[in-house]
Amino acid sequence: MTILGDELFVVRWKQEDCVEVYGVADSFQCLRHMSIIHLQPAAFTGGRLRSLLTYLRVTSPRPPTKTDSDTLPARLTDIASCPISSTLYVSDLCNCRILRLRPDDAAVMTQWPVEGGAYGLSVTQSGQLIVCCTGAQELRQYRADGHLLQRVALPTDCLQPWHAVQLPSADRLAVCHGGR
User: Fold this and answer.
1) What letter would DSSP give residue 17?
2) pLDDT of 51
């Protein structure tokens, strides 16, 4: 979950692929649900996993219903917000990608593949995205447009990185991970 402005954005692993939005100022009343729909099956091209999101639908405050049996479900594992650019990021583990969204109308601004699986997300003080890649056992730092800035290989005993945050010193990260 993440807060941007006066809204709380929540993703749930076991719920249908949606982002729930709650009002912070009004006792966390549900304002709307945003559902990712009409995904094309992922395809391998040149060894890179790609998938195409045709559109994102904003529905009423009630949970979305499945209307298309051909829909490839996304598996949203985390959500983060950037107050600098006023955008949201969601990680889709099943399709190995990151989606950058506008929080008001849920339009996809940018999306990019993340080989090794995108799991936990956080945003640095300067607005860069930190992604925990569970399959690659590393952290990746991206610009808002999806340009990879840095890869950080994790020690061999740091299995399954789930979440990482930038520490106040700005040159260090704290990592939550699984174990043996």
Assistant:
1) S
2) 30
Q: Where are the domains of the chain?
A: 2-178
Q: Under a CB-based contact definition with an 8 Å cutoff, are residues 30 and 21 in contact?
A: yes
Q: What tokens appear for 93 in the block? A: 């583990």
Higher-confidence position of 66 and 123: 123
Please state the pTM of the whole predicted model: 0.78
Give residues with Cβ within 8 angstroms of 156, minimum separation 6: 137
What does the pLDDT look like over 118-158, one tens digit per residue? 889 999 999 999 999 988 889 999 999 999 999 999 988 88
Query: What do you get for the CA distance between the two ends of the chain, in Å?
Result: 27
Instruction: Give phi and psi for 176, each to the nearest 5.
Output: -100, 130
Query: How would you classify residue 69: left for phi > 0, otherwise alpha for psi between -120 and 50, otherwise beta?
Result: alpha
Tell how far CA 140 is from the center of its chain: 13
Q: Quick one: CATH architecture of 2-178?
A: 7 Propeller (2.130)
Which SS3 state, helix, strand or coil, does residue 142 take? strand
Q: Cβ(74)–Cβ(39) under 8 Å?
A: yes
b vs e for 47-72, b when ≥16 Cβ sit within 10 Å of the residue's Cβ? eebbbebeebebeeeeebeeeeeebb
